Sequence to fold (155 residues):
Amino acid sequence: MRVALPALIDTERLAGRVAALARRGDFLALSGPLGAGKTAFARAFLIATAERAGAAPPSEVPSPTFTLVQSYDFGGAEIAHFDLYRIRTADEAAELGLDEAQANGIVLVEWPERLGDRIPRDRLDVALALARDDQRVATLTARGSWASRMAGFAA
Fold:
């Protein structure tokens, strides 16, 4: 499914709608070039999850480019936001606790292609791209359990 994202608010709305479908054990693969909106999507996803859990949204949602992972707990709704841009091998990602984070909550992974064949089969792929006139577009591909959840999801 392709979704036009002409403004930041559109990315935030899409992330909020996806967050409403997410549950413990989910893996969201956020791909796209630098500046495509991966971190903006993750930030909006986190804020929507906090609001849905009745928790205070994080005051800041930094990109984990240098820390590699940022973890959040919204009263039982645990989310780990990984940025694998600086990772060279899938084994390095495993050392970051990716599997444990997914077992305990939801993981958002920027640059998931760094995982190679270690990427989970059950996931939602969110491919973000820059289109004409610096507008963005998202292509959502539901795999595994996400397929039934996304069945009624309209752009």
About this structure: Helices lie at 8-19, 38-52, 90-95, 98-104, 146-150. Residues 2-145 form a domain with the Rossmann fold fold (CATH 3.40.50.300). The mean pLDDT is 89. The chain has five helices and seven strands.
